[in-house]
């Protein structure tokens, strides 16, 4: 008999995990690059251009996570709500998702 | 005989419609207020403060719409996908939602 | 003898005033358009697309005002600081400008 | 005898350089922390909360750089424009600053 092993792929981003990790490594390098630019007194506008590049990269990371969250956690909760007849399961997930999106929009 | 009345409340924001409309009327007035400030040569920093207030109000409107969309359209699609066994129904809605969120984050 | 009439064009955006006012009128119409969409139960994603369009338009308005502020108020203060030997005049303007930019970035 | 060594501190952020570098090191660590969270399949909402924290920290870095740029490069250019009677020196800097701010606002 097989049980669902939610523990190993709990949040849906596992499929794209490698891509996401690669992206985060690159961002880490970009932040280090900015520190180097500041150390070397690089012209501030050039530093700001790099800051914008990191913001755009972080934006893609957020989007990735939000899409995975909606596509897995919210959708999974919708199915559970339907199976159990308890709407609060999905309602809680929707609230949580929109709170996270609100923090991203600041 | 009962017909599904999806047409009258199709997107879920109908419940909060009055609150949303009130909020939009207020934003409309704020934009008009900024035009007046510009006409009267109000100090630019004070105009910018009003611009930030409108941005924050628009942010709440977006959040409202996003939460309603996830809570109604995405969740509804998840139920349809489960009922029909066709995962593409909800997958399309999730993609659409995250594209809209991406535009909001810019 | 002529005196400078800073009162009538104090903040520099007066030159582009017409363009700025036209832009604000258009945004006002866009906000009204969104209210209409909500009233007519337009599909939420389409409403969100319009919200993003307004955000982009407000972004241009902010940028306009920021550029004018820096180009006129900050630069004017720099000249006054140089003329009077009092650096605090320009320092205050720079602080004020960056506080306004911070509110825009949220 | 003292000479002004503008070359070594060209962009004004040198004074706050240590604080800025410390902030960047912390952000680098936060990005690495997110990679670790993803590796360990941390709940996506918790990862998103960390993403928002990095965005807020990057926001402070940008603001720092923008304030320094306006306070040093733009103000310095305003003084040069006044000394030389050539307004284009400061006009170019203002354009450059507002282009950088536009990229930050996205």
TrEMBL record, chains A, B, C, D:
Which UniProt key words apply to this protein? Copper
Top-level taxonomic group: Bacteria
Q: Which CDD domains match?
A: CsoR-like_DUF156 (cd10148)
Transmembrane annotation, as ranges: none
Which Gene3D superfamilies did the record assign?
Metal-sensitive repressor, helix protomer
UniProt cross-references to Pfam families, sorted A to Z:
Trns_repr_metal
Please give the family membership noted in the entry: Belongs to the CsoR family.
The protein depicted here goes by the name DNA-binding transcriptional regulator, FrmR family
Please name the source species.
Answer: Zhihengliuella salsuginis
């Amino acid at each position: 008999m097989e049980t669902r092993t939610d523990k190993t792929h709990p949040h849906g981003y596992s499929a794209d995990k490698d891509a996401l990790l690669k992206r985060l490594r690159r961002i880490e390098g970009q932040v280090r690059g900015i520190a180097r630019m500041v150390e070397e007194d690089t012209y501030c506008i050039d530093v700001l251009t790099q800051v914008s590049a990191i913001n755009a990269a972080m934006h893609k990371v957020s989007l990735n996570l939000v899409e995975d969250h909606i596509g897995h956690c919210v959708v999974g909760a919708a199915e559970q709500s339907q199976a159990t007849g308890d709407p609060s399961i999905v309602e809680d997930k929707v609230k949580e998702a929109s709170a996270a999106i609100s923090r991203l929009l600041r």
